[in-house]
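hey so i finally got around to running both of the ones u sent me last week. sorry it took forever, my laptop kept dying halfway thru and i had to restart like 3 times lol. anyway pasting them below in the order u listed, first the sequence line then the structure token line for each. didnt double check formatting much so if smth looks off just lmk and ill redo it

first one:
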Amino acid sequence: MHIDFLGIQAFLAIVETGSFQLAATELSLSQTAVSHRMRKLEESLGVKLIARTTRDVTLTEAGRALLPTARSAVRELEMSCDAIRKHGQNAPDWLAFSCLPTLSHGLVSPLLLAARDRWPDALVRVFDTSVREQVELLESRVVSFAVSVLQQGYGDLHVESIGDEHFVLACPPQHRFAQQLHVECSALENEPMIRISLASGNSATIDGALGPLRARLRWRYEALHNAMALDMVRAGLGLAIVPHLFVPPDSGVAVVPIKAPIVKRTLCLVSRRDDKPSAQEQWLRDQAVALLKMRLTAKEDD
């Protein structure tokens, strides 16, 4: 769907100023141009957003529904543009990389501490974000590399496999599964389960591994992020299948290896094929890979 940003800008200006005339002054446009933008926006949406009289303008029900979302979207866009502008102004001074949020615990802080010891004055920017946004950051040359997971969608980017990370069952410490050496997924059929949102790549990994069993499990709750799922587990609401590296030792939940089927994902480092990293960037990449491999080995030995 085409997003009419000019129309949304006019809509917000009219709401904020209370009139088409003042909105035109704020946007440095003619009143006719503002009216034209509003008409195009309403035609593209198929609904009236503003009821206009000779004295004032009022929002329709559709306009009231759109207003908070439009404000939030424009605010986020402004913040993103400001961040990119600042990055452009200081790009030569920063080392920048991206890391998936589910891999950041136990990786980012040790990596930054090691970098600080080696280069006390170095400036490092970390983007903890999704795979899709990692690709965008790499293609726009905002970051030097990304610590991610192997999946479709990397296009012509260079992908270096690091190792496999297993998913585990997170349960309350007092749960009957907590003291078991491992658990089979078929034993979960009568347990209240906490599902990670379908928008998550982890959700697709779990569903693919479970196969037909997925439909037989009792998905009682759904969380958008693993952190929320762990919080639900701590509260005793249910059990969750999560990446092993995501669960810190002091998480307040028990982790149990999963057998039959094994659920796992492949960790990787993603970069541009034509990239020529600086000595500092190459050192950061090598350290990130070494730290991840060390953490994977330590988890296997647990």
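and the second one:
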Amino acid sequence: METINWGIIGCGDVTEVKSGPGFSKAPNSKIIAVMRRDAAKAEDYAKRHNVAKWYTDANDLINDPEINAIYVATPPLNHEEYTIAALKAGKPVYVEKPMTLNAASAIRMAEAEKKYQTKLTVAHYRRGLPLFIKIKELLDLNTIGDIRFINLEMLQPHQSDLITKTHDNWRVNPEVSGGGLFHDLAPHQLDLMLFFFGKVKTSRGFAGNQAGHYPADDIVSGEMLFENGIIFRGIWCFAVPKEETKDLVEIIGSEGKISFSVFGQYYTVTKNGHQERVEVKAPPHIQQPMIELVNKFFSSQGENPCPASEGIEVMKIIDSFCKKD
């Protein structure tokens, strides 16, 4: 492909700024058409973003001969269906996170990629951001020595500004999202752990609904043992007082500590009694760096920045943390 001609399935909130404009601004890339079931909203999005065509049926978009790549940006409930349909049509897919509802569904998507000999990338786009690339460089340089363990705390009040608001609040409907706010935010965090530390040997956790604001779990805890012996422990709670809000990851090494916020724009290195804080701004369209990597992969000019196998691993971890006895 000399130019990636994108079709977007699900032109909702996430595509307004975070991802949508990145497909047009990335080199050798443009949006040909968008799809949304609500015709008025689909047409409005297309007009505001200067997209020539819009559809209300995903299959019509997938079969548009001008389109040679598909971005699936619907809620997770539809990820498997639309991804497999696009792969079957011979069109590579960039699918939003979480990859789908659960690990079994993710495995079926990966099997379709192989069956139809097309390409599939999961939108764990923080892998492409300068902040996390820099942190990985520091870890690879052994800046804080041998890594001992990672501690993650994600604490948010019930009405958090971090959570994208939608009229139907689908993120806390397990039938649509796979779970609750943990399923919406944790894929970013857990994928970064894989990006930094490699394969997980085993994982386990607990989940529950303590506050009862919605049907989904609002508290999750989990532990992971990586194959290299590093241990991870995390807590996610979406019903804390506002003053207890926290988004913190601490990587403890034999010679120091790296701290950062997954949804922030900084990291700190603490070593020998000295602490250095570095600000690393995110791009205005936060998915654009990842989109550029995906375009290179789809054009056979680069490797897959986040293959389906990584998405499956994230879903397996999520399933293990939220498993009910």
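quick thing i noticed on the 2nd:
Residues 199 and 226 are 6 Å apart (CA to CA).
anyway thats it, ttyl
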